[in-house]
């Protein structure tokens, strides 16, 4: 029976993973296929598992990277610390029972893709958004020696609000990572509400979005000669890490 892999999330029209993995399988003559499982509620994960007994592994995207944890049997240490999962590995337990173990490959992809861009002046970072992907970014930056702070639209403990982004904050926090969906296709004209006029050539702007290639957030940075990076390389790196996890 052909092994299936797949992605759970909602919506999935923008997903890169299906085409990426199916091209990989075809090029490597691997007898497998990758499917999108667009589910409107995390409770539907049970249906996906029952209806696809040949599943070899799953990726998890918005909005379920944290919600899925309660439905797993175990967590890898990185996923446990981060508090978000984007890879599920199926492990055979006692009497052949299928157990679900959660991993986080986002942190690998993010660290490897941003590390070459960091300089000595990049000591502090603003993380726009507080969702599942932001947690991997937070811990990845800490491991790279950068001090991260979350920025939220709503009042939250240990977070800055967008209105708190004063000239002093913008001067000190020279890495800005967008982990929100603001600016994603088709709403390409939107951008996070930060004071773009305070950006300088010393800032590094990283957008986890990759569709479009250059978001409105990154375009604003280009106008000020910032260092720019979109999320495509991170996505490719985390996809390869997913494959490694499923097959280790």
List the helices and strands and how they pair.
Blueprint: E1 3-9, H1 17-27, E2 32-38, H2 45-51, E3 55-60, E4 74-75, H3 77-82, E5 87-92, E6 98-103, H4 106-114, E7 124-128, H5 132-143, E8 147-152, E9 159-161, H6 167-172, E10 175-178, E11 204-207, H7 216-223, E12 227-229, H8 232-247
Parallel strand pairs: 1-2, 1-3, 4-6, 7-8, 7-10, 8-9, 10-11, 11-12
Antiparallel strand pairs: 3-5, 5-6
Helix pairs in contact: 4-5, 4-8
Describe the structure.
The two termini are 20 Å apart. Helix 1 (17-27) links the parallel strand 1 and strand 2 (32-38). The mean pLDDT is 95. It is built from eight helices and twelve strands. It is an alpha/beta fold and 248 residues long. A six-stranded mixed sheet has the order 2-1-3-5-6-4, sandwiched between helices. Strands 9-8-7-10-11-12 form a six-stranded parallel sheet, with helices on both faces. The radius of gyration is 19 Å and the shape is elongated. The chain has helices spanning 17-27, 45-51, 77-82, 106-114, 132-143, 167-172, 216-223, 232-247; strands spanning 3-9, 32-38, 55-60, 74-75, 87-92, 98-103, 124-128, 147-152, 159-161, 175-178, 204-207, 227-229. The longest helix is centred in the C-terminal third of the chain and has 16 residues, at 232-247.
